[in-house]
Amino acid sequence: MTGRDDGDGDPRDEAEGAGAEARVRLPDESPFAAVAPTRPRQVDLARAGLLLTVVEALNVLVGFASTVYFAWALGASALGVFFLFDAVLNTVTTVTDFGLRDAVEKRISEGEAGDATLTAAVCLKLALLAPFVLLAYPLHPYVDAYVGAPLTLPLVAGVLVYEFGVLTLHVLRAELRVEETALLSFARLAVYVLVAVALVQFDYGVRALVYAFVASYAVLLAVGALRVSTGVARPGRAQFRSLVRYAKYNGVSALGGYVYNSMDLLVVGYFLTPAFVAAYELAWRVTAMLLLVANVVSNTVFAQLSAWHARDELDRVRATLADAVTASLVLVIPAFVGIALLSRELLGVLFGPAFTVAAAAFVVLAGEKLVTAVNVVLDAGVRAFDRPQAGAYATVGSATLNVALNVVLVPRYGLLGAASATAAAVCLHGVVLAVALSRLTPLAVDARDIGWCVGAALGMGGVIALARAFVDAGTLGGLAALVALGGVVYLALVLASARLRAKARGVVASLA
Question: How many independent structural domains does the chain possess?
């Protein structure tokens, strides 16, 4: 339910990152003797991607079920308080990280001195966190008043465990041990759900979700720190400069992600009631689930693309980017069609009538995810080419547009205005990223496969529209039947393509 997981992982060898060369000194050799390097470690992208998708699907199912439960158990107003707490925490963690996590992943994956790089990152992160910790107490009356409950102290604890817990996931990805991070993220979600459900039973109200959030990231930090193979070493100026050089641009890009995820919610919270906050955030989080495959693809390929770029294997980079775009859209295309047909029923039946006020915004947010699914792949590409400034430029323009449109549209159009502001900004962001990446490498998409998926989704939509004449979508059983029918029809139509069947067989074969 928290929607804040980073996702996948993989333990670490002493050879640091892709492209690192393990050198062995034999007993009778001079220390300057030449030794052949081992083959650089490499991610099996198909295998890792499918395994991550399975685990992330479990994450989505558990997270979605818990969201439904908490919506009914706590109600819209209490849930809105937690969502505002989460939005404030997201604001703080975005500023206090400012691109460092991605910088660590990038530099270690390139084969830089991993121990010194990680130590430098921890030092920088502590320096960025210190002002927040020192200012939290004097500012707590304002924070508590905005959120709607006295939650500043758990906010401080949440920021600390979140920042360092998620950092361990980025280090594991940099070590090209991608699958492990998904397992760690699922364990964190399981802890969150179990603790929250238990505390709800003891009438902790919204504090149940807050305390569970903090506990789950504390577990992630403890287990992640044990799994990371990169150690600590005294960093030099080179490590600090390298991290700052990358992070200063990547941090701006991360700020854009924050703007998309939280700025509209913060504006809604300022102009409207917590009940509207809860309805909008639930619509957002349901559509965010549509990015399951896109996020897995991005997290799986980034470190490998970075390693290939460092070795000047650009043909492999281009081919992988094209396949990644197709994979990222496979789930989002049919989901958009389904939400366009069933938005009110999905919100009302699953979460309650109070949440149907976000029905129109729900459709717009689902459409926005079509663009976001491509954007996450483009962003991974520009970062792998060591051009985080491209993402920064895209972010500055799109984030500025998003903030301006939110302030103008939310007071007049409510939740639909917030969703429209985000959609417009995401489109601008995608255009800038595409132009920037096309200057680094020729871009191509598999129009035939994507077109087939679009046709399959439209066919699915036609079947659902006809079935609604015989099935009541306003009941849980009827809604479930329509969703299941749509899924079966879409899968059958997709697999009717010989090309897509062959790709699916290839992915499954990679697991053998």
Answer: 1
